[in-house]
């Protein structure tokens, strides 16, 4: 991670210590690209002065991986979530508009209500059912209002070999426990962070706008857990349950499968989630 101001990079990664931030760093490192990566201490997007100070003129792409991602925590701390996921994103978007950079930003399937029965197109009406979803919707609006060049990339059910994520949680639980109940009435698309970073980079050559990027295929959290345990060789009795039987502070959309056609037209077919899961598991000891 560098804080060198004399150097004008092609890419600036914000929120670089998060799960997706690390995937982006590793991608740009592997391709030997010029980039600066800022963690939260180096660049806090809620700090009005920091954004302009750290993102100099000449930068071409600002990749925003910073967010408040604790979905249940957002219910109690919606103001803070909105400051980060809404206003902070707006500040990045205004800076990008001012210097002519493109903002690569991540939003979520949780901006949708979840009452559809076919994949949500990119222009489907959004109607979040949680504080997290509302805060992310505020970020999307702030970008649109800023007039900056952008790729607003909605993704879902993100995981990686590192960080806090469902795959690592379920690897642990299916190893430690004899039985486990997992909700089987929420359907969506898991997404490898490494796959997401790579596809996002490909989309830099595409038009501005909103894209959906996930792994291919779809499943419920229960089916996802079954496959994690199967691939890991964990012998755990996994039982399906309903959302009502697994109460949480935040409501989740029942159906959040997002249509991939715009992305696949620009970047090719999205790899199936089971294939990407195997790829990620192979990187975990
Ligand atoms: N995880 C998922 O399942 C999904 C995520 N997304 C979106 O993808 C993006 C990346 O998510 P993910 O990698 O999982 O997130 P993480 O929670 O792993 O990382 C977010 C990073 O943002 C940092 N951060 C928080 N607040 C600020 C701030 N004010 N200024 C600068 N940095 C800040 C955090 O730092 P610290 O840890 O120090 O607080 C953390 O390093 C987010 O926009 C998220 O909403 C979309 C769909 C699914
Ligand atoms: C741990 C556990 C979870 N679950 C359920 C609860 C919930 O409905 C579902 C997923 O739980 P999690 O809390 O891991 O996931 P959640 O925080 O809802 O994940 C979301 O994060 C944000 C950031 C996004 O943007 C979304 O795309 C999505 O990935 O699994 C079980 O049924 N059994 C279990 O043992």
TrEMBL record:
UniProtKB keywords: NADP, Oxidoreductase
Keyword Oxidoreductase: yes
Entry EC no(s): 1.1.1.133
CDD domains: dTDP_HR_like_SDR_e
GO molecular function, one term: dTDP-4-dehydrorhamnose reductase activity
Organism superkingdom: Bacteria
Family under the similarity heading: Belongs to the dTDP-4-dehydrorhamnose reductase family.
Residues covered by the RmlD-like substrate binding domain: 12-283
Stated name of the protein: dTDP-4-dehydrorhamnose reductase
GO BP, one annotated term: dTDP-rhamnose biosynthetic process
